[in-house]
């Protein structure tokens, strides 16, 4: 058989396998890919509500499969452009069809025998299938012991081709699968930067202070001319770029980074020159002032300025600071979550911190799931296990966490979920926890209850009031004050008639209408 044509056929088969593998993953977990436009979203995929960690892992796996697909497509295109000689040779040989058939038959038989000798099985050929990375020893290597019924179908989710992917290599424990930024190392590097006046040993900025001021690069105390500062900026930029890419591997996040860099280059002349109050323009690269814009424009094209721009680190620092600010704008949600988490962790006692760190589950546990391709119903087996062996012991009736288990008792107490609050305005609904109770005052249900009591606007004035009697009393007080204010406004303006008699404007208008003036 023609070597080139066989390679083309093999490549086409491999491309089909990759397409099918990607389709199977998206069909199994619809959260992996969401169309950007509603017209492309037909809502025909099942949403199994898989954990976020598992979704991100499969997104990274699909990204790797797409890279492989592009590589093999390029190889196939090269073969297709150079297979004319092979095709013409086959056409000449077709004159004697039986000889060609016998030749191809022998080659096919030889290839089959070679495959049998190598011991390549069907399961090993399908290296792109889910769960194909598993071997018999996988169950013994799992971090936590599982019940026998669970071990039957619970396997590592990845394919044999992407078996080297590990969640622990993609995310750290503190990043919580892209929810938080892990900037502890960069915080320590920021503390050690050279400064004109060092920090007081009793007033060293905390991690939370660093997060609040991470984009404030105008600190005059910092010595920016040192290599340490540029090294710190490069480290921070590298982390933010990698984080932005790994939280959305299928959205081509590199485009956003390229757009930010090109935007800086297109406006770099505006950033180099700053206009002073007297109208002069200061060049930050050459550290010189120019009286007019025309003089400054001609200076930008000069050899001296270009030479300084190439050798000056100030321009490089400006670029790094700009890109970091823009990336942190894109990651504003994650930065805010990190601040809140740092604040929450700071308020915990030492024992609570130890308990929380102890209860952190192993990241690699999320790489395992139930294989639904072996002829059994995973949902049914899970339900059977939960009814028999997986009965959750929850005598205090604590709320369930994201892992389906009751949250720790100390966390339940910390969030105030042991306290119950009643709201008569919402129809005697009960809310557990002060935070949830406080948030509900801005919800549509509570505002609807206020409208039914005759309140049309200014809902904020009735915040934290949950009893109907208190609401009605406050409403009456507000109406009385409003009437008094209107009366005061009417009585406040005084006018004079032609004879010099002083009276309120209201009395004046009434007398004028009656023709008494």
From TrEMBL:
Residues 368-377 have a biased composition (Acidic residues). It comes from the Eukaryota. SMART domains: ZnF_C2H2 (SM00355), ZnF_U1 (SM00451). GO terms for molecular function: RNA binding; zinc ion binding. Residues 368-397 are annotated as: Disordered. GO terms for biological process: mRNA splicing, via spliceosome. Keywords: Metal-binding, Nucleus, Zinc, Zinc-finger. GO terms for cellular component: spliceosomal complex. Residues 283-305 form the C2H2-type domain. It is found in: Nucleus. This is C2H2-type domain-containing protein.
């Amino acid at each position: 058989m023609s070597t080139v044509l066989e390679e083309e056929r093999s490549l086409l088969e491999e491309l089909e396998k990759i397409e099918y593998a990607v389709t199977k993953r998206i069909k199994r977990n619809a959260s992996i890919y969401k169309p950007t436009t509603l017209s492309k979203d037909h809502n025909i995929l099942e949403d199994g509500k898989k954990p976020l960690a598992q979704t991100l892992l499969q997104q990274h796996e699909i990204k790797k499969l797409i890279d492989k697909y592009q590589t093999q497509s390029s190889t196939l295109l090269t073969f297709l452009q150079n297979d004319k000689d092979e095709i013409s040779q086959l056409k000449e040989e077709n004159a004697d069809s039986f000889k060609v058939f016998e030749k191809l038959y022998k080659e096919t038989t030889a290839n089959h025998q070679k495959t049998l000798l190598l011991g390549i099985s069907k399961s090993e050929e399908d290296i792109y299938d889910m769960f194909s990375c598993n071997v018999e020893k996988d169950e013994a290597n799992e971090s936590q012991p599982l019940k026998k019924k669970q071990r039957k179908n619970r396997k590592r989710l990845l394919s044999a081709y992407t078996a080297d992917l590990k969640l622990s290599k993609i995310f750290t424990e503190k990043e919580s699968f892209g929810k938080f930024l892990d900037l502890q190392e960069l915080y320590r590097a920021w503390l050690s930067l050279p400064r004109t006046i060092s920090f007081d040993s009793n007033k060293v900025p905390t991690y939370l202070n660093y997060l609040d001021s991470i984009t404030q690069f105008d600190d005059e105390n910092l010595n920016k001319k040192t290599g340490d500062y540029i090294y710190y900026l490069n480290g921070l930029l590298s982390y933010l770029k990698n984080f932005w890419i790994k939280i959305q591997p299928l959205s081509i996040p590199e485009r956003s980074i390229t757009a930010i860099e090109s935007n800086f280059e297109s406006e770099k002349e505006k950033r180099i020159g700053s206009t002073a109050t007297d109208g002069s323009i200061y060049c930050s690269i050459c550290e010189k002032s120019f009286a007019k814009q025309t003089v400054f424009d001609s200076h930008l094209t000069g050899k001296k300025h270009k030479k300084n721009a190439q050798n000056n680190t100030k321009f490089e620092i400006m670029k790094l600071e700009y890109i970091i600010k823009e990336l942190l704008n894109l990651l504003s949600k994650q930065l805010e979550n990190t601040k809140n988490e740092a604040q929450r962790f700071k308020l915990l006692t030492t024992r609570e911190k130890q308990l929380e760190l102890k209860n952190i589950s192993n990241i690699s546990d999320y790489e395992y799931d139930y294989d639904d391709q072996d002829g059994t119903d995973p949902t049914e087996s899970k339900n059977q296990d939960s009814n028999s062996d997986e009965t959750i012991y929850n005598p205090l009736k604590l709320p369930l966490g994201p892992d389906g288990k009751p949250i720790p008792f100390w966390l339940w107490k910390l969030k105030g979920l042991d306290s119950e609050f009643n709201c008569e305005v919402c129809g005697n609904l009960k809310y557990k926890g002060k935070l949830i109770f406080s948030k509900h005052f801005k919800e549509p249900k509570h505002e609807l209850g206020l409208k039914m009591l005759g309140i049309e606007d200014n809902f904020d004035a009735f915040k934290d009031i949950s009893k109907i009697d208190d609401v009605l009393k406050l409403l009456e007080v507000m109406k009385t004050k409003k009437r008094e204010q209107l009366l005061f406004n009417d009585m406040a303006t005084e006018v004079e008639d032609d004879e010099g008699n002083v009276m309120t404007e209201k009395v004046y208008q009434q007398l004028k209408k009656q023709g008494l003036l």
